[in-house]
Amino acid sequence: MTPAGTFVVNGIERAVVNQLVRSAGVYFLGDVDAVTGRMLYFAEIRPSFRGSWLEFNISRNNVISVRIDRRRKFPVTTFLRAIGIGSNEEIQKLFASVDNGAEAFIENTFKKDPTHGSAEGAMEIYKKMRPGEPAVVETAIDYINDLFFNVRRYNLGKVGRYKINKRLKLSIPNEPENWVLRREDIIETIKYLIRLQKGDVDTYTDDIDHLANRRLRRVGELVGSVAVRVGLLRLERTVKERMSLLDPKTKVMPNQVINARPLISAVNEFFRTSQLSAILEQTNPLSEVDTLRKLSVMGVGGISRERASFSIRDINASQYSRICPIRSPEGPNIGLVTFMSLYARVDEYGFLLAPYRKLEKVGDKVKISKDIVYLAADDERDFKITHAEVGIDQNTFLTDRRVPVRFRGDFLEANTEDVNLIDVIPRQVVGTAAALIPYLQHDDGIRALMGSNMQSQAVPLVRPQSPVVGTGVETDVASSMGWVAKARHDGEAIFVDGNKIVLKISKPTREDEDEEEETDKIKINGNLETYLLTKFKKTDPNGTCYSQKPLVKVGQTVRKGDALIDGPAAEDGELALGTNLTIAYMHFEGYGYEDAIIVSDRLVKEDLLTSIHIEEYECEVVDTKLGPEELTRDIPNVGELDLANLDEGGIVVIGAEAGPNDILVGKIAPKGETELSAEERLLRAIFGEKAREVRDTSLRMPHGEHGTVIGITILDKEKGDELSPGTSKLIKVKVAQIRKVSVGDKVAGRHGNKGVISRIVASADMPHLEDGTPIDIMISPLSVLGRMNLGQLLETHLGWAMSHLGRKITVPVFEQIPEELLIDALKKAGLPSDGKAQVIDGRTGETFPERIVVGTGYILKLIHMVEDKTHARSTGPYSLVTQQPLGGKAQMGGQRLGEMEVWALEAHRAAYTLQEMLTIKSDDVVGRAKAFEAIVKGTDIPQSTIPESFKVLVKELQSLALSVQPLGIVTAQPLATTGSGSDQLEEKVQKEVKELEEILEAKTDSEDTPAHEASAAGENVISVKSDEEIKEEVNE
């Protein structure tokens, strides 16, 4: 485990996500009865890890029943008898103080109760819970006691006991022996339920989505309960099995009965496969911080994505200042994965706490005190709390007579003197990412969500700039994960280079003594403190580059807390996810269509949006069945040009440029002996040696990748490195590439204003201002209207003024920034007060007819780069069953021609294109091989044959016991239409017409002939055909 609270598993840094689960305890809920329309209440007692659920219901007849583990119902009096409260008098006495109305709940329940006394109560429950087993009184009582009063079978946990005590106003000590159910718990639960049904004023139902009823299971608890506990139970089982097999007289050593493997495998399984163990998102420092502040309701003991209701996903009033209302994934996990608010804390029980300042009365005024209190969600219930943006004078007195307040989940208005607490700071409502968005209050919620998510996808740039318009949180975020190092003491820099800074420290003060210990990044030697820098570290999972650089020079005096080292995406100790660019909201030749963005080539030339990306390629040297593989530069059938970058051991040299299919590690494996040809036999007879049969198994650069080799790591089993079985060596090659911004890259602002670069225009052709300042980036003005993210315009205006004044400004989230301040800043900078300027077309020199919004905005380059997405295939792997090409870039797949694409080609009557798409370009195995051969030889591409999918269909039909026999292609023979053939056809037609005419004449004659003459003309009569036959012949 690292100091940051992450875990390194198999060389990959992982973080355990905090799980938000329903707390153990007692809950009171209500439901409207469908028949009577009356609200009927019920109570649930939920254990923590193990144990039976207990549910108490009130029926429409005022009968209280109990249900164990959601199975059979019993009258509650039967259950009370079973736990030792036997007689009716005892039960009535217990509930006399609450059940004294006309409802007579206990009296009505007695009528339904068939039992009398404790033994009968226990037997009744035992019979219904274990119907097939013989009922004995002692067994029944033991069963009930085991169910709720045995520590091994029932556990409320520390949290469950705390919640029950708090909800039912009990004072049972929170000790492990009290983490089972007590009789007082059951009695007080039934009492409260009766009072709730009667409508007592001080009773209320619980909201199961309220944060008073949901708690965090943090990393220690998750590893303990999900991994270690499971492993220990398996270990216990194996120890007991082994002990039962041993002779009682023999002396036993612990190693004979204990095998730690079940425990180790359980812990490994949790870290590798659990839904709550995630790779630490290291795209930039913000994404790293947010991974550790992430909350999830999914995982072991949580809710699955499919079963999650809308109420779980929705924002609850109790999340104010505890869970960020803005940031959440956009996909199916929306609302299920959330993030902690900026200043939220977690108490010992796992409940989220929010900070508030106390208000105190001074005379007839109300003053904000300096005391900060942290409250859980249920502690807020009895306080009236106002927000930090109410009127406050210089002496921290509230100036408004009435203020908006939150009270018991509602938003109300109250007199100032009635208010108890006030928010510490306006931005405490939002999380880390949202707190970095200036003018957040002017953005639509959906766009704010996108903006906060996209900041975590920003790539660290080669030349980062901290924002001109910031929010004041940048410094804290940059230093939170330790990438920006600060001086721990006053001192002087005596040595500085790219790898370390040595600080000669002054005498440490008493406050510094707690910081004296060494870390993996800070080494202490007397009064010298050495700060180590990380250079070109590949991050997971996106391969961005983390690199630190020194901020001090030799001889410079530093104070405690000064920034010494800048981390990735940081400038002078401030978070710098992007760069400040001159923006114009305007159209340009239609290239701004569908949110596309036009940029100047200055961004490419000056590396303003350039980033470094590192990929790591691994090559294992393994022992095969035919012999061990070996590293070598001597690879069969490879030219000297391809081996130029390899050293004598066959490994690429550092600094070499590598392109697609270039060899990184030369490696050969032995091949099976084959029958030798006559020439080979002759060679062997002459030279008397056995020709080595090897095959090339070298590690090559993947398709479409390129870069510079910056690092090589060789792990060798002979030198004591731990490798997997059968592997003798492992070579890791790091390849870095500099990626300049290009067409197709995704860029975005902080307000959800994202887009893809559609064109990079020469700086001279870009529009420019009247003073000659060229525009860096053009955004379509249509992209602002419908999206309602006006924060970007305000940021642009203020950024323009500040960049002219040579200053940076902080605009904290949700703080009131008067419009006059913006106008004054523009006027002070000598700029138009409406933030618009006259813009000149760089190509023609003409002025655009309308004045355009121009200014300085903060632009991020996101991880979605076109170079990672571009993919092409000529031939490649095919699916085994269908013989169709695989899909996706990772599988070197093809582009799928789906059902709708087939319709499109059919609509355009592109029959030949369609046929080759469905045959030789897909699964016609013979045809595609012949087509490839024809392309290579330069001959005509032959006709396609039967596709494999047709054969699969035939086989599937045959598997249904249907006899399917393909008859082959039936083609119609064309009729000859020229020469002698056409004359023959004409004669044939004329002959057939003549025959038909004769038949028709004969028929008419036969109709006129009298009956007695019919026999004489019998031949004619017989040869006459029916009308239907004649019609058929005519049709033919």
Distance between the termini: 88 Å
Number of helices: 27
Work out the number of β strands.
Answer: 52
Q: What is the highest CATH level, the class of one domain?
A: Alpha Beta
Q: Provide mean pLDDT, rounded.
A: 90
Percent of residues in helices comes to: 25-40%
Q: What ranges have pLDDT less than 50 throughout 5 or more consecutive residues?
A: 1011-1024
CATH superfamily of one domain: RNA polymerase Rpb2, domain 2
Keywords: DNA-directed RNA polymerase, Nucleotidyltransferase, Transcription, Transferase
Catalytic activity: RNA(n) + a ribonucleoside 5'-triphosphate = RNA(n+1) + diphosphate
Pfam families: RNA_pol_Rpb2_2, RNA_pol_Rpb2_3, RNA_pol_Rpb2_45, RNA_pol_Rpb2_6, RNA_pol_Rpb2_7
GO biological process, one term: DNA-templated transcription
Detailed description of the structure:
This protein is of the alpha+beta class and 1036 residues long. Among the domains are: 20-206, Dna-directed Rna Polymerase Ii 140kd Polypeptide, Chain: B, domain 3 (Alpha-Beta Complex), CATH 3.90.1110; 344-424, Rna Polymerase Beta Subunit, Chain: C, domain 4 (Roll), CATH 2.30.150; 580-609 and 743-862, DNA-directed RNA polymerase, subunit 2, domain 6 (Dna-directed Rna Polymerase Ii 140kd Polypeptide, Chain: B, Domain 6); 611-739, Beta Barrel (OB fold (Dihydrolipoamide Acetyltransferase, E2P)), CATH 2.40.50.150; 871-959, DCoH-like (Alpha-Beta Complex), CATH 3.90.1800.10; 980-1035, no CATH class. Helix content is 27%, strand content 23%. It contains 27 helices and 52 strands. Strands 13, 14, 15, 16, 17, 18 and 19 form a seven-stranded mixed sheet that branches. Strands 33-48-34-46-45-52 form a six-stranded mixed β-barrel. It has a five-stranded antiparallel sheet with strand order 4-5-6-7-8. Strand 45 and strand 46 (754-761) form a beta hairpin. Helix 4 crosses helix 5 (137-149) and helix 18 (791-805) runs parallel beside helix 19. The longest helix has 29 residues, at 980-1008. It is globular and about 115 Å long. The chain starts with 6 loop residues before the first strand and ends with a helix. Its EC number is 2.7.7.6. Keywords: DNA-directed RNA polymerase, Nucleotidyltransferase, Transcription, Transferase. InterPro entries: DNA-dir_RNA_pol_bsu_ext_1_sf, DNA-dir_RNA_pol_bsu_external_1, DNA-dir_RNA_pol_su2, DNA-dir_RNAP_su2_dom, DNA-dir_RNAP_su2_hyb_sf, RNA_pol_bsu_bac, RNA_pol_bsu_CS, RNA_pol_Rpb2_2.
